Amino acid sequence: MVKRALRVGLVILSLFAETGYATEKSGPLPAPVQGGQPSTQEVILDDPLGRSTPQGTVLGFMKAVNREDYERAVEYLDTKQPTKRAQQLARDLQFILDRGLSASLPNLSKKPEGSLDDMLPPNREKIGDVKTKSASYDIMLDRVQKGDNPPIWLFSSQTLRQVPEIYEELGDYRAERYIPEPLIETRLLGYPVWHWIALILGLPLSLLVASIISRALLPLIRMLIRRFTKRDAERLAPRMKSPIRILVLALAFHIYSLFSYSLTDRLFWSTVAVTLATIGIAWLCLRLIDVVVSRMKERRQETVPSGRIAMTRLISKLSKGLIVVVTAVIVFYSAGINFTAVLTGLGIGGIAIAFAAQKTLENLFGGIMIISDQPIRIGDFCRVGDYQGVVEDIGLRSTRLRTLNRTVVFVPNGQLATMSLENFTMRDKILLNHRIQLGSETLPDQLRYVIAEIRRMLYGHPKVETRSAWVRFTGLKDSSFEIEVFAYVLESVFETFLEVQEDLLLRIVDIVEASGSRLAFPSQTMDVSRDTALDRKKGQEAMEVVKTWREQGEMPFPNFAPGKIAEMDNKLDYPTPDSALRKSRQTDRRDD
């Protein structure tokens, strides 16, 4: 734990060293001169003390007083007082800034003209305010030009005239009164030794307290997650400990900043606290997204459509990416990094990345289109190109398809969005289309009997759509008569359709057998004479039925009369009376 804290501290120290909080005395490199005229950046660097910008003045003053170089600190004051009184004024101003200034130094202007949208005169800048028991005082900077030198920013003379009054109201209280003298006088890297002792003892203690609090809150977190999601509570609850530990640690650093020795210390630790709090909140949001996704998975079989599950997964991934980007922006902003330059770099880099990742972006937007339009959903059985299978997942880059051979095919979303997809699951009914061939020995009236009875059977079957069903004598084939059966079965599940199709085909076989004819199959036998029906008695009976139709003027050709069809509609028993499934259903009804 201590090693982890040290690593975090080193990373944060390096971050602030890069953003202007380091104590290097060397200034930035001068900007190039274009066209023989000095650029704006060059004018900024003309002042060796960094007073060309409001932020440079404040940071330069704080560095000087922290090193107790009050002779240098006076150079940041707009005062004409004698040297000793000016140095005492710098000490008092240091105390005021350390004890009571409320300001965000990273957000101070880094431009030579200062901030022009603060409703102040162009040559005046407010860095913050100091509140006492009786009043609130603004700490101001003025842009002053001395002789022919470039203009510089100094603590305004108006603010300096208020310093003695503010100092008296704040009171001469310092933490050093309660600390042994050697720990105050001895310095290490510019700071008193007691600062380092407080840091070395406070950091492990803060980590220990954060760990204890996160462990203590774990049962409560587990209970809350269990009320929201049932299966994954034990897995998700421990993952909340680390974000909570970071948030508690941020609170500890914030408290530590309130008791800091100087403004720079307070600024550093408050920025560390804001950074850790931002990271902790972002981390916690990422974990909460996992909780929501887990809950959606549990409800998949209940009320949530599979398309919404896929959309939830996609939105969760995009939300996580957005949270990471927003967190980085907040951290950079709180650290005082020039975000304009960062955005410019991101814009140029984004164009380059967009060209380099065209396929990735194509797949990403293809996935969004698939999930929003929902041509396929998770759990659907479909045909994609040369593959048939069940959709298992729709991701950011590709869609996963489980084929009939139990292999997994990954289809890029960019290609999938432009392909022709056939979704079998979205069918409202399934087509039954078969061609039946009767032997060449079948007599015409036997053929008429078979056609009429198959029609009667389709019209009466409860699982067949009556209005679209038809049976036609479609041709003379080699040694056979061909009858085409066309009907829609009122089922959308393929397994159930197979059951109904089996029942229909068996009934057709019974009709052919009852007609006295036979089904023709491919053979190598050549007919040299006209055969008689296989069953002469049944053939005679079928012909008698057709004869009756003819005598009564009820020949069902080209079809049955509409009234007859209405009488037949849904009159057939299904399942058949001798079906085991039918007996099982009757038993279940008696039990109910």
Question: Can I get a quick summary?
Answer:
The chain is 53% helix and 14% strand. By secondary structure, it is an alpha+beta fold. The chain folds into four domains: 38-179, no CATH class; 193-356; 360-423, Roll (SH3 type barrels), CATH 2.30.30; 430-522 and 533-588, 2-Layer Sandwich (Alpha-Beta Plaits).
Question: Would you mind describing this structure in some detail?
Answer:
The protein is α+β, with helices and mostly antiparallel strands. It has four domains: 38-179, no CATH class; 193-356; 360-423, Roll (SH3 type barrels), CATH 2.30.30.60; 430-522 and 533-588, Alpha-Beta Plaits, CATH 3.30.70.100. The protein has helices at 2-21, 40-44, 54-66, 70-73, 83-100, 157-170, 181-185, 193-228, 233-236, 241-258, 263-298, 306-334, 339-356, 358-373, 413-416, 444-460, 494-514, 536-551, 562-568, 580-591, and strands at residues 101-102, 124-131, 136-144, 152-155, 187-188, 191-192, 381-384, 387-394, 398-403, 408-412, 421-423, 430-439, 470-477, 480-489. It is rod-shaped and about 140 Å long. Mean pLDDT is 76; it is low at 1-45 and 301-307.
